[in-house]
Amino acid sequence: MKSYIVIGLGRFGNEVARKLYEQGCEVLAMDVRSDLVQQVANSVTHAVVGDGQDKEVLRSLGARNFDCAIVAIGENLAASVLTTMNLKELGVAHVVCKAFDETHRRVLEKLGADRVLIPEQEIASRLSRSLACTNVLDYIELSKDYGIIEVPAPDNWSGKTLVELHVRAKLGVNIIAIRRAGKVSVAPGADFRMEQGDILVAVGDNKALRAVQKL
Questions:
Q1: For the segment 8-23, what is each residue's pLDDT rounded down to a tens digit?
Q2: Which residues lie closer than 8 Å to 46 by C-beta, 6 or more apart?
């Protein structure tokens, strides 16, 4: 079972803590506001009132023993930065931070945050891609150059196996899953035979994914 400490229980932190717990993870949720702690108390493993800016508080909670720390503090730049710095100094294996703009992102990255995200920016990116490309059902950005795309399989793929289609060689993407009639086949083998109406889930660089969109 993976363990997470979520620091900052605004709308974003609250939702992340709840969803992780629903996925069967151990979750310690923390905020300086007792009312926010009470709101999530029954939906996580443990919920405590505490300040991530205090390294001794984090140490006493055993922060370094968690698989991942999520700093979901809102627009308080000082609190976000100091909390991230404390977690890194305590040796937390993986630190994920929420940022509110690019300057905030750069500061957190300089401190060694393993991943920094701007939720509004990521949502806007996914929405714009899905609206601009009518055949794209979903897009997940993995990095600046790589992503995962979900698109309907071309009709002329029907009846052919993945090895016959030479997907990786011709398009430069890997098919990691195929959805069919509500069921998902994860890591389909080379002999997987396509049917009309199948949905492809492919991973690759952005150039290759653009080629997939044009199929």
A1: 999 999 999 999 999 9
A2: 27, 28, 29
Per-residue pLDDT tens over the stretch 93-122:
999 999 988 888 899 998 999 999 887 766
Strand 138-141 and strand 146-152: the pairing is antiparallel
The greatest distance separating any two alpha carbons of the chain, rounded to the nearest whole angstrom, comes to 62
| Cα(215)–Cα(203) distance, integer angstroms | 15
Sequence length of the chain is 215
pLDDT in tens, 36-83: 999 999 999 999 999 999 999 999 999 999 999 999 997 788 999 999
> What is residue 161's DSSP assignment?
B
DSSP assignments along 80-123, one per residue: HHHHHHHHHHHT-S-EEEE-SSHHHHHHHHHTT-SEEE-HHHHH
